[in-house]
Amino acid sequence: MTQTYQPQRYWEERLTKTFDLTGVGHRGLGVQYNRYLYKRRLETLTAGLGKTGCTLDGKSILEIGCGTGFYTKYFTKQNIMKYTGIDITRISVANLKKQYPSYNFICADIAQFGLSKLHERFDIVFAADVLFHIVEERSFQNAVQNMIELLKPDGLFIVSDVFPENTVSTSAHVCLRSFSHYEQTLGVLQVHRIHIEPIFAILQPPPVKTPTFWWNLYANIWRIERRVVRLNIIDQTLPIILEWLDRVFFCPRYGLVLPNSKWLFARKHEKNTWS
Ligand SMILES: C[S@@+](CC[C@H](N)C(=O)[O-])C[C@H]1O[C@@H](n2cnc3c(N)ncnc32)[C@H](O)[C@@H]1O
């Protein structure tokens, strides 16, 4: 199944068709719903950074899979010192170069692009919803290794993924990896988890089933109602209700245990004077 996924081609086609939040976000949902998903991603990213005691002020940032530049805009507002964005698509790099002429954008596959090509290290290496689209295990290992190489000693590695109990492929272009999968990969590279911040419990439709009855029932409701959710009226109202429920009740209680998106914050503990 995974053999049919050609990342560069897939993303070039997808972003050429829709260079907006539905292109990089959840394709099955409408624009308004995706706005709510992204709003929540930002709120939880900011909360997570606060809990790790990390400020973005004056930092150099490397973003992998910058897509339509949603986080480029966020980082721009944080008084960062420097930003570099890498994306596998030409369309992302061309559009973002026009929008942010003072930043550096590179068209490359992170699985094949490391320190030997960029010759520079960063305070923060960041990838939102990208690593689970690197489905081949060898490429995933190379991508993480390259990202860590490009990180300064004591630098912060921030990625989002679903972290189900066990690593699972849910489609040709998605492989969701477990915490232990990440920790094994990162541990070898002297990078250790410092914080996990849940992003959603119920706002984003369940990306994977579990042995839990209620979770699977919820997943099935989403499966049946997919087409309805794209109706304008539902797209405008449903996310408002679910976002509130998620933020106030479900995410604080179940966000860490349910298989839905989370931010992983990890620190590189390499004893190295290279910076
Ligand atoms: C789901 S989108 C997320 C985009 C952006 N991070 C966001 O959250 O809005 C995945 C992005 O990663 C890029 N991408 C996928 N595989 C990649 C790879 N191997 N190397 C670099 N970028 C990649 C895609 O082109 C796309 O822009």
What do the pLDDT scores average to? Answer: 93
Which value, in Å, is the CA radius of gyration?
18 Å
Number of strands: 9
> What's the CATH H-level superfamily name?
Vaccinia Virus protein VP39
Give the names of the bound compounds: S-adenosylmethionine
CATH class: Alpha Beta
Low-pLDDT runs of 5+ residues are: none
Give the N-terminus to C-terminus distance in angstroms: 41 Å
What is the topology?
Elements: H1 7-17, H2 21-24, H3 31-52, E1 60-64, H4 70-76, E2 82-87, H5 90-99, E3 104-107, H6 115-118, E4 122-127, H7 137-149, E5 151-161, E6 168-171, E7 174-176, H8 179-188, E8 191-198, H9 213-229, H10 232-254, E9 262-268
Parallel strand pairs: 1-2, 1-4, 2-3, 4-5
Antiparallel strand pairs: 5-9, 6-7, 8-9
Bound molecules: S-adenosylmethionine.
